[in-house]
Design a protein that fits this description.
It is a single chain. The protein is of the alpha/beta class and 298 residues long. The chain has three domains: 3-84, Winged helix-like DNA-binding domain superfamily/Winged helix DNA-binding domain (Arc Repressor Mutant, subunit A); 97-167 and 271-296, Periplasmic binding protein-like II (D-Maltodextrin-Binding Protein, domain 2); 170-268, 3-Layer(aba) Sandwich (D-Maltodextrin-Binding Protein, domain 2). The chain contains eleven helices and twelve strands. It has helices at residues 9-20, 23-30, 34-48, 64-84, 105-122, 138-143, 187-192, 207-214, 231-236, 246-253, 284-296; strands at residues 53-56, 59-62, 97-103, 126-130, 148-151, 160-168, 170-175, 194-198, 220-225, 242-245, 258-261, 270-277. Helix 1 (9-20) crosses helix 3 and helix 1 (9-20) packs across helix 4 (64-84).
Length: 298
């Protein structure tokens, strides 16, 4: 029997007829006429090869086959209602769910401590699984089982939703008390210092280096590393200069012997973006997590 050729509304009619054991009452329950309910019963009899409901001296009675079918019919209707009903609201206080995310280390430093505080306070059953996903596989992972990614993107591919969490500028980070940190922080002094450069993808060059090149300058990079969080320690124990995201630089300057200076040349800022796949547009849990991340963002 092929479902494509069957009116599944007949299951609703069968459930009402077997429950009421009366075609007229079943019609009222279904909101149809009595002839329409009788027509549905005839079609069901033909379809199932059984009388289903027969007249007896004590009234209409279901056949053994009908009694056998009744629980399965009710289960099928309940399953259909579950499929068609609106997605349940997400209650963070009661939810038991794991969200999988990918996030750059500098964004994780700024967001995750605040997010964890919110989870402990408001969503004790929610867990966050931070996954290491290579940059070239992020779109594939988002289309699969990754819930969201937070980072800096210069593309705008189809099939994703982007939400700006915060805008970021730059500050130059120097060891507090160093000779370079005293006096005016000129372009000449900036170019004379050794630099630490963060290359998350292992690729040299940046908008800052492009701006310097246009002005006919080039900085001296002493060390290139892929991670942000080691840079403050390098600067705090050397005469290196680090041109760092401003909010991150301020946070480390509160913990380490570091001082901040404005870059001696204009440096374009950037946005930290939360990216999700369109497949999750109607997921109330993702909507809650997106709103929470916006609230805890700097």
């Amino acid at each position: 029997m092929r479902l494509a050729g069957i009116d599944l509304n007949l299951l609703t009619s069968l459930d009402a007829i077997l429950d009421e054991r009366n075609v007229t009452r079943a019609a009222r329950r279904l909101g149809v006429t009595q002839p329409a309910a009788s027509h549905a019963l005839r079609k069901l009899r033909d379809l199932l090869g059984d009388e289903l409901l027969v007249r007896t001296p004590t009234g209409m009675r279901p056949t053994p086959r009908a009694l056998e079918l009744q629980p399965a019919v009710r289960a099928a209707l309940a399953a259909a209602e579950a499929v068609l009903q609106a997605a349940p609201a997400f209650d963070p206080a009661r939810a038991e769910r794991t969200f999988s995310i990918a996030i750059a280390d500098q964004a994780a430093f700024m967001l995750l401590p605040r997010l964890v505080q919110r989870l402990v306070r408001e969503a004790p059953g929610v867990r966050v699984d931070v996954r290491p996903v290579p940059q070239e596989r992020l779109l594939e992972a988002l289309a699969g089982d990754l819930d969201l990614v937070i980072g800096v993107f210069r593309d705008a591919p189809a099939g994703v939703r982007d939400t700006v969490l915060w805008r970021e500028g730059f500050r130059c980070v120097l060891r507090r008390g160093s000779a370079a940190a005293r006096g005016p922080f000129t372009l000449e002094r900036y170019l004379s210092l050794p630099h630490v450069f963060i290359a998350p993808r292992g690729i040299p060059g940046s908008p800052l280096d492009d701006a310097l090149a246009r002005a006919g300058h080039r900085r001296r990079i002493l060390i290139q590393i892929p991670h942000f969080l080691v840079a403050p320690q390098l600067v705090a124990t050397s005469d290196l200069v680090w041109t760092a995201p401003e909010i991150l630089a301020r946070a480390f300057a509160e913990q380490l012997p570091l001082t901040l200076r404005d870059p001696p040349i204009p440096v374009p800022g950037f946005s930290n973006v939360l990216r999700t796949h369109v497949r999750l547009d109607r997921d109330p849990g993702i909507a809650w997590l997106r709103a929470t991340l916006r609230e805890v963002a700097p």
